[in-house]
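Protein entry
_____________
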Amino acid sequence: MQSLWMLVASFLFSIMGVCVKLASDTYSTSEIVAYRGAIGMLMIFILIRVQGGSLRTSMPGHHLWRGAIGVLALWLWFYSISRLSLAMAVTLNYMSPVWIGFFLFTTAWFKTGHDGNGTRRIEWGLVGAVTLGFVGVILLLRPSMHADQMLGGMVALISGMLAALAYMQVRQMGLMGEPEYRVVFYFSATCAVAGVLGALLTGGLSDHSLASGWHPHKLKGLLLLLVIGVTAASAQMAMTRAYRLGNTLVVANLQYVGIVFSSIWDVMLWHDQLGWLSWCGIAVILSSGLIATFYNSRNKSALPNDPIASE
């Protein structure tokens, strides 16, 4: 049940994505990243003061590593959107759960022993569920890539891989006892610093006229930035809790549901029409999440020493 926090995170991230898309008509990528981080910092700081928490941490290196990887993944993600169709960029970026499955599979393969039959203990059902989820993403988005989009495609692929590393770092910090609010606060701080530096030095990675400098605010823009910051921080809290308390591959697989939420927003706000293949993709994504959850619940007690099952 703790893995279901990823559903909350995915829904909030989908709202953030809508606001980012709307705000990109007014602000550069660097500005959005900076304001997202600053608002998130303020929100988490208030939460810490109310609950009596502390920002003192015994693992500054872990926070620096998580922040650097997470911000780089975020920046590459926005860059790939400017170079690719949205469908291709989203598909490649959402390979992060597949990367997590690959990393966990590789670690388990080399570190675990063998069972009584001489075979390695790998939880193939969860790995298969993650793969099934990615098949659903492809059915839903049906991406296509041209030769001149190869660079953007590689950037999106790397973004998804870095995001997977960041999620696994979040998991490790949670297991070491670092609370969610502290992980989110320092990541928001990294976003704010990186966004400000980006606006001052490069002006962002977008190719349009808003690619440099700081831009004046209007009420609509301020509201969009506020929602981006609040939903991003809240989603990060939910995601961090999911990775700390839930099963890693189940949580990663439930991330695919964010595609479903985004597709619904497209239909409601921009009146995009979903074909039958898209609806099949949605069904496959939801099914993969249910399969992963059921498989983990059935096998966790049977395979207590399995390194993937115990994640």
User: Anything to note?
Assistant: The first helix runs from residue 5 to 23. The CA atoms of residues 110 and 120 lie 9 Å apart.
